[in-house]
Amino acid sequence: MKAVLEAAVTLLTVLVAVLMAVIIAIRISIRRRYRLERRYRPGAELGIAEYLAGLPRVPEAGGRSERAVLLAVALEALGDLRGSERERLAELIERLGYTAEAMAGLRARRRARRRQSAAILAAVAPASATHALTAALDDTDPIVRTACARTLAEVGGADAATAAIIAVAKRDIRAVPGAVAAVVLALGIAQPSALAPLIGADAPPEVRSIAIEVAGRLRLSEHAKLLRACLREQDEIAAGAASGLGMIGDVRSVDALMDLAGDDRRALPARAAAVAALGSIGAAPAVPLLDSLLGADWPLMAAAVRALCRLGDPGTAALRSAAASSRPEASAMAEAALEP
Amino acid sequence: MKILIAEDSPTVRRVVAARLAADGYAVIEAADGEEALALAQSEQPDLLILDKVMPKLDGFEVVRALREDPRTRAMPIVMLTDRTGEDDVLGGLQLGVEEYMPKPFSPHELSARVRRALGRVSP
Predict the structure, then answer these.
(1) Which residue of B has its CA nearest to A55?
(2) What CATH number does domain B2-121 carry, 3.30.920.30, 3.30.2290.10, 3.10.20.600, 3.40.50.2300?
(3) How confident is the model over A215-224, as pLDDT tens digits?
């Protein structure tokens, strides 16, 4: 028993010693990094600032630490800049070999290095990285895959790359939904037609919801037909599609939106989204339907009041009539809406 | 002409300073709101470029203090910030900020806005 106790104490002592050694090593490493950062940072900031101001001298970095600090400063500046200076800085990062290193880093064994490389390429988005980024879409790590997919979507590329980006979005939506949303947004901005397969029924519902919202917010009228088809689907998808059609201002969807808004078998959020879209589109034929919804449940009634406010004289007339009615909630809401 | 840049990011501060120095302005720098206010009052620059979010004293508080001081009441101010919500922009304009420049920004465009703001006060 005593021997066992002694062994346990010895083991515990060794463990504590190892832990302390690790903590000391980490602290030394952090201090060293901090010291190097303090030493090289002012020079890096000045070099980049003067280069951007048009001075012919190119910032230089000798050793590994100095190069790392210069890159960190350059990436920070890149995030705050736009226009010709941003382009100039991105070219400098490429000229100093950082993007070539990052492209090679995408093939590294260590996941942290691959993630860091993907982040550098995402910040710079160099056209020269298309091949390396496409290859990285098969990486084992979803963060690397989605970061490269987003960059590739921004840079643009061959149809094969677009198909691979779409595959990444479908594959990784449950693992990294935020990163996939960024991929879909980048696709919507750079290659709007590429959103179609993500809106269609073959895609996972989570990706579809994002793609539908992106299509609406970017007002991609080329996808209005697909969004109209979504109005007949499950309530969550239908609600997103209705909002999107409202943002696009799709006049051809008025009948389908009125069907959804008036269907009491559908969920309230979907119906309220359809009502709001009718107001955004300026659908005067919807006034009688919206008027009838002034006696409905609160979210629907509130949406109907807001929509009527946007429908000019016929909407105002319906609100006046509701304000004078004996329905207390509708009357109060309509009166408030009519106040200048 | 002398310009004060108040910005807590040293990288952005140096980029702006180098751009304005290349344009021929004398540049002084502040890293936080308190330093900005003190330098604006002591150095009396011709224009202030001010970040909205800064340590010690918020950009709006600096503007308010400068507008209450007769020596700095007319000093033109260009706000350089990533806070571009309606409330932020309206708040700045109501306090008497001449220009509101959102980040990410173009130093060339900032330089043009500085020229315009200075032209307004010294025709």
Answers:
(1) B22
(2) 3.40.50.2300
(3) 999 999 999 9
